[in-house]
Amino acid sequence: MTEWYIYEDQEVHGPFEYDNLCEKIGPKTLVCPAGTENWEQAGKLEQLAGCFESQTAATPTPKNEAESTARPEVLPEPTLEALRTICQHATSADLQRQYREFWDSYDRQEQRIIRNELGNRGDWDELVEDD
Question: What is the average per-residue pLDDT within 63-79?
């Protein structure tokens, strides 16, 4: 079963299994399946519809529909601890892609976190050899 991360109070939390996730989120909570970077409002995801079935009757309709579906243009930067957690649960392929595509945009602490996670998995040497 898919595990999920949530973005709340400018921090990434998780991973959570479906049952625990449903207890922690609302339809507007930003969620992301483990191993991806696809952040979306929970209420827009078919996989999480069951989390809100009982909430729908009790939730009043917003006055302005645009307000209820507004999504931030840019998510705030996660903390270094959140980055460590994300790296630990990301696939090696995702980490390698991050390294190749975005390495120059990371600061030294962020680079160290990614490099250490790849090194812990034994994937760092392989990645450096490919370059």
Answer: 52
Rounded to two decimals, what is the model's pTM? 0.45
Task: Tell me the one-letter amino acid at 50.
Answer: G
79 lies in a domain?
no
Do 65 and 116 lie in one domain? The reply is no
Q: How many structural domains is the chain composed of? A: 2
Residue 76 lies in a domain: no
- Whether 129 shows a pLDDT value over 70: the answer reads no
User: If you search the block for the tokens 């931030």, which residue do you land on?
Assistant: 72
Distant-in-sequence contacts of 69-76, Cβ < 8 A, 24+ apart: 69/41, 71/41, 75/7, 75/30, 75/39, 76/10
Phi, psi of 7 (to 5 degrees): -115, 115
User: Mean pLDDT score of the chain, rounded to an integer?
Assistant: 75
Q: Quote the domain boundaries for residue 106.
A: 91-130
